[in-house]
Automatic annotation (TrEMBL), chain A:
This is ABC transporter permease. It is found in: Cell membrane. GO terms for molecular function: transmembrane transporter activity. Belongs to the binding-protein-dependent transport system permease family. FecCD subfamily. It is a multi-pass membrane protein. Its main location: membrane. It comes from Bradyrhizobium jicamae. The keyword Transport applies. The chain crosses the membrane at residues 12-30, 65-86, 122-141, 147-172, 193-213, 240-270, 282-304, 310-329.
From TrEMBL, chain B:
SMART domains: AAA. Belongs to the ABC transporter superfamily. The keyword Acetylation does not apply. Residues 6-241 form the ABC transporter domain. One of its GO terms (molecular function) is ATP hydrolysis activity. The keyword 4Fe-4S does not apply. This is ABC transporter. Keywords: ATP-binding, Nucleotide-binding, Translocase, Transport. It comes from Bradyrhizobium jicamae. PROSITE patterns: ABC_TRANSPORTER_1, ABC_TRANSPORTER_2. Involved in beta-(1-->2)glucan export. Transmembrane domains (TMD) form a pore in the inner membrane and the ATP-binding domain (NBD) is responsible for energy generation.
Amino acid sequence: MVSQSATKPAYATTAGLVVLVVFLALVSLGTGPVRLSPAIVIDALFGGGSAAQQIIIREIRLPRAILASAIGAVLGLSGAALQGLLRNPLASPSLFGAPQSAAFGAVLMIALGWADVRSYALPVAGIVMAFVSVFVLLSIAGRNAGLLLLILAGLAISSLAGAATALTMNLSPNPFASLEIAFWLLGSLEDRSFRHVMLAMPFIVAGAVLLWSQRSAFRALSLGEETAQSLGIDVTRVRLLVITGVALGVGGAVAVSGTIGFIGLVAPHLMRPVVGYDPARLLLPSALTGAALLTAADIAVRIIPSNTDIKVGVLTSIIGVPFFLYLIVRERRALAGGVE
Amino acid sequence: MNGALLRADKLGVTLSGRAVLKDVSLSFSSQHLVALVGPNGAGKTTLLRALAGLVPSTGSIEVGGELLSSLPLRERARRFGYLPQGHVVHWPLQVRDIVALGRYPRGATDPARLSPDDEIAVTRAMQATDIMTLAARRVTELSGGERSRVALARVLAVEAPIVLADEPTASLDPRFQIDVMKNLRSTPDRGVLVIVVTHDLALAARFADTILVLSNGRLVAQGTPEQALSETVMADVFKVTAYRADYQREQVIVPWAGV
């Protein structure tokens, strides 16, 4: 045939990213108070090395590395899915207030004394609130939401969620609990165990499967919602499934890690030119890039010298916000044009 | 009309509390080019969207003898090629992949893995609209005229029995306006029903078999160009007079002056 698709599955990119994620995971397993070389790490993973090395790698650092990859991946995937759904490069869970809302749900559970930090009530509450936030946002924004409207509505929702969290902490009878919550909110993967992995994984996997199943709809949505509908896509259903998928992923992630922002904004942006701007092909590379970014950030917080430990959520925001500003400058024309 | 391909009975559409379309009944067989004309805000786009099942409507629509409301979305998508106004593409996708989206209703969800049939349909649509040379270009690099041909190719690639096109000639230079209309004209010869919304009465008069005139949500005239665009209709609905002539054995109707 004369015509060929430019957007062939990017096997090479995918393979490269997988290698990168595995490499970073090995580095992550080797990083900490006791530095271990990748060779020792691999040895310990497969039952070699000393007993101490095995405990450090398999019980202390492995859950953390797994969570970093999984949470980074689901955040990258959520960002790519939201961008596909809304045809908008500035869409992402954190700009829509989803992690903040999920955090509020989890904090509420803790403050009300309904759950400790290791109960399934946390992810469930987080998922419910994340769903509510994204659903409300998309309802406010309407069918053909412009950039400005989405960002303003996202700002309002994340502010509201932040204020609600603050109020909950404010009213909490136990000041130490408040302090603990405050630190937890900053977002961290420190001292996580396999209990946490079990807590978050079912939701992250379910969310990822749901988002992945909608990928071809994102491609048709490139032509706008009405045309996508005329091509046989039930746009209302796609919206609902994407919101549910994002809520499951983000809610599950936030419940064990606190709020980690901007991975969902940065990862799809880095990969978009690589996959020929195809919103369906973007999903997998975005997820892998998200995994790589969060794992790298989680390594960085252990390497950067400081008196107290830096929270990984703080680091992703410190890097993510300037990136967001850069995107705003790039999209300035669309934003100045107002609500399209 | 018996064995009508598309039939609408007492169609009504209400959008945010306003009756945009009232009591529209029509019936068309295949191999027909219908032009839908009318002043701004007459409800032309709404009628097109209602026929495609994209807005909720009262009354009934039948496609090939089956109720539209009884057909699943995928099946509707196979029966209608819908070309909206504006030709929006939100990402800088490749031309050929956009055209391939026309095969989505046939199950071709991945443009990199088209079946031979899908591949043939895509190529045929691109040849018909003369965009083969643009296949590898990104849609953002194209001119307005090129973009509208890509959009038309995407609709032709559906190979649906009914094509609904909303102002396919808007923002095109005269040559491409004529090209697009000729393209749509040759589509009915292949057994397809084409309904085109247009503001260009001259193009409508020259190329359409039937003209529907819509005013304030009602069908006020229907028939051959001479019948539907009569002096009364031109004066009452469009508030213009028209110059009429025959040129190269084709009908010429050109809006001339306000009344």
